[in-house]
Design a protein that fits this description.
3 strands, about 180 residues, 3-stranded antiparallel β-sheet, alpha+beta, about 65% helix, single chain
Length: about 180
């Protein structure tokens, strides 16, 4: 992420994944695990740290709206964390948004079914709506998000049950 030291960059990714995890638990999605994968690549101009986070759900049967809320939660958590800690800049906000492209891409087919529309403006408008709902739920569970992010940052990987305990939520069984 532009201008962040590696430790702060890692925390931003941890917060993103913790946002997904806490909202998943909140909406009743089983969480298998959540992890941060760190690698260094040399792109020809020196080593570059790359971090990727994943939250692995178990099988679930949930409304499209609940799944989209969970998908939108990562970016919303990361953006809030950047603002709360005085780290938000336009470049970092854009980087958080670009880091969530995979989440948005995963939400689009569900949003098309939910809205009954193939119009991208309609679909993305619904994504923003569910993102706003995710942000509201994140606010209710913000200490849980920070607790999960802190442990994930330190350990690199948590089981769903460990994350649920940290969040004070239940990890429901897979569907």
């Amino acid at each position: 992420m532009p201008g962040l030291d590696p430790a702060t960059y890692r925390r931003a990714v941890s917060v993103h994944e913790a946002g997904h995890t806490v909202i998943a638990l909140h909406v009743g999605m089983h969480v298998k695990d959540v992890k941060i994968v760190e690698r260094t690549r040399d792109l020809g101009c020196g080593p570059r740290l790359e971090l990727e986070g994943t939250m692995s759900p178990g099988d679930y049967e949930l409304a499209h709206s609940a799944v989209v809320k969970q998908l939108a939660a990562g970016e919303r958590a990361e953006q809030r964390w950047l603002r709360d800690y005085g780290l938000w800049t336009q470049d970092r906000g854009w980087a958080a948004e670009m880091g969530a492209l995979h989440d948005r891409d995963a939400a689009i087919p569900r949003l098309r079914m939910f809205t009954g529309s193939d119009d991208l403006a309609t679909v993305l408008g619904a994504y923003v709506h569910f993102g706003d709902q995710a942000e509201e739920v994140l606010g209710q569970h913000w200490p849980a998000v920070l607790a999960v992010a802190g442990a994930l940052d330190e350990e690199g990987e948590l089981t769903g049950d460990q994350a649920a305990t940290l969040a004070g939520l239940l990890n429901p069984p897979p569907a």
